[in-house]
Amino acid sequence: MTDIAFAPLSRPASHKGLFDAEPLFAAAGMLIGLSLAPTLVAMALDQRQFLGENVWLKPVKFQIALSLYLLTLAFFARWLPAGLTAQRSYRLYSATVVFAVIAELAWISGAAMFGIASHFNVGTPVMQGIYSLMGLFAVLLTSATLVHGIAIRRNSRTGLPPALHLAIWLGLVLTFALTLVVAGTMASLPGHLVGTPVSGATVPIMGWSREVGDVRAPHFFATHAMHALPLAGLLATALLPQRMASRAVWVFAILFTILVTASFAGSMAGLPLIPEF
After folding, report:
1. Cα 28 to the chain's mean position, in Å?
2. For 49, which DSSP code?
3. Is the pTM of this model over 0.85?
4. Distance (Å, rounded) from C-alpha 174 to C-alpha 222?
């Protein structure tokens, strides 16, 4: 097992394409991205509103987010230990993750079609059961960042500069840890808002409330640790000596965690991230 896991790559990891190291995640991410087209057509033709927004806006947001999520994992998969993705247990796990992603999207799109809430809809035992199941699927699909983060951390043959290697695996692990806390707490609330808005003022594009606490803001930051930290690692590697670059990544990771924690505490206290003036 050890010999297989640390066998030399057939070609440099940095030269691998999205489909080389993790074809399932790459294909699923691409297909979900392509599925945006019919959803956008539905949004243009169907003018029904739910809570002040077009009913198809939420499926569009989740299609973008989950497509980016899978494609990011497929990109980072080039630095997994050689042979890992060929193992039967890994293939079964990755297929389960993709199934969870598709199930989430199917439920969210179906709810849009019927004009009902896909989240916080626990009015009947059936809806409560579906909501709980979707929560389990959400944890399952998010766990892929933890699995990839630990595997990349253990791979000493990535060929990456130390600071960038650190930033990638740390960003993936933080994505799982922070998202689990923030999203798990949000799922236990009656809704994503803490407080009752009056005017309905929101942050453009993001839709976060500017009047009361909105847990979607820290949730957004938490899930993008997998992008923010590698970008910080890339900059640190380019601008700083090796030892200082690794220290800079640790400092950025701490500051990023403080950002998520502070915005999460603020939203739970009913405070908007960007107040209305």
Report:
1. 15
2. E
3. yes
4. 8
